[in-house]
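Hi everyone, sorry if this is the wrong subforum. Our group has a chain we'd like a structural model of before ordering constructs, and none of us has done structure prediction before. Sequence below.
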Amino acid sequence: MKTRTFADYQAEHFLWQLDDGVATITLNRPDRKNPLTFDSYAELRDLFRDLAYADDVHAVVMTGAGGNFSSGGDVHEIIGPLVAMDMVELMRFTRMTGDLVKAMRACPQIVLSAVDGICAGAGAIIAMASDLRYGTERAKTAFLFTRVGLAGCDMGACAILPRIIGQGRASELLFSGRMMSAEEGERWGFFNELVEGDVAEATRAHARRLISGPTFAHGMTKTMLNQEWCMSLEQAIESEAQAQAICMQTKDFERAYKAFVAKETPVFQGN
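Answer:
Right subforum, don't worry. Here is the predicted structure as tokens:
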């Protein structure tokens, strides 16, 4: 299968940086708290789809410029035009935004969000759809769809958020649209950790530690975490048996064994 390299990827609607296998996507409209547009949604969707074929990207960090993560869909460039659309156009849009979440969940790389300041609407969804989330004490997260007359069931929120923080807490946030404080987010399990200082750099440090491990096996773990949502226990155990047998055929498994025997630290290579 043909693979792609992303060292020279040129993003049009956000910033892209790739260092030693860790990519950083920075939403970069700080004057308006980094809102999303039709074009940035589409580019993010396409990028995450393409990352399934990357051989030089092993983790992705999502963050925002200027002290905020993202305020969600741009009021003037998205919300306004949506009011004038017919049902066919609206379905095309809502399926596209959902496809971004599908692509984030389907890509084999671990996706980590570094959240500072405002993380609202579609921004909160991007953080939610990530595998791991790190925040600051300033982080304010809101699934504020009801504030604009919409349902809380946007981009998979009713499926994913309860699995992270529990059904009752997710229901309250999705009905009310209120801000979840950073302290609540950490206590409820939305944030893996609250950090001081530069949250993006701290998150990249977490990413670097993770990709020093067996990245092929990490991708298998992510796949199983996704697929086992809708499996019986018997199906899950059988699927994990198959997944683990595949991982046992990798060179990384052999490297780990030889390193253990030699009392050395294994150097994983992702194959």
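For your construct planning: The chain has a mean pLDDT of 95. DSSP finds eleven helices and nine strands in the chain.
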